[in-house]
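Example 3.
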Amino acid sequence: MTDDKALVRQILAGDMQAFALLIRQNERLVSHMVGKVVQNREEHEEICQDVFLKVYEKLGDFHFQSKLSTWIATIAYRHGLNAIKKSRISFRDLPEGESYQDHFISTEDPGAQFEEKDWDLYIEKLISALPASYRLVLTLYHQEGMNYQEVGAVTGMPEGTVKSYLFRARAMLKDKVKESMQKEDNYEFRGGITATD
Amino acid sequence: MSFEEELQQRIEQGKEEAGLDAKAYYTVFSTLRKRQPSSLPATFADNVVRVLEQRKASASRASEYWLIFGGGFSLVVAFVVAVAMSGFEPNAGFLTGIADYSGLFVFGIGFVLFLSYMERHLLRKNRAV
């Protein structure tokens, strides 16, 4: 926090190298935030750039009510949503009144596309098929190390919703991984019989 | 709290659990904990700073133009107000006095053009030699 304060002070004094440092410290966070909301690669970098320009513009109004990274993530989230509204990029989120579970990747058909032995790759593909709100909550909590309160502050969701989304997203991922593990075990078992035959 | 929630909590806390559900959760948590790299180019920070500096420069140029325009406009307004308030009437002044010497003006202009022609065609040629 103290380092962040010194950094902000330097930037406000006109030190552009300090601002470049702030960007380098937070570009991964912003890239993930924008990437979770906007899945259009062409627009991704442009929106990330706009986020940091906005951060520079609004930095004078930031008084450390929260962590600097949380504040930047909030701007990134709102900017991502605005970009979607402006350019009408498709935003796949929770369908109203029904469970997203029904719309999640079916292991029957495209499951074969995944190299299931590479779990990281497989789970990353599963994550990218989750609704945007679930992806966001997962990223902020697990990748950025934010707590429920901070995730809520960034996304504007109540703490209970954050907990619930996090739980449901992980449970959905677990179910798919479990299915794949079972299929893999069955395959190995059948393969074993063939080998002994 | 459901069994599933408890299981997630215990695994997150690093406790050892058995069973296929737990195994699947361990795999999921392991991937979730791995830090994903940024998909932005290595020059991203420098690019943003460059764009910002360009914007600042164009904003300061725009404010200079506004200053020049504002200054010019104020001068015109001040002139109009001064003329209106002082009852000033334009007067050609000394120009009316020398109106009879138009031949002299025509000669002067012709002479200046002649000198300019001589300078261009004779003196410069000589210098080049």
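The first helix of chain B runs from residue 3 to 12. The two ends of chain B are 104 Å apart (CA to CA).
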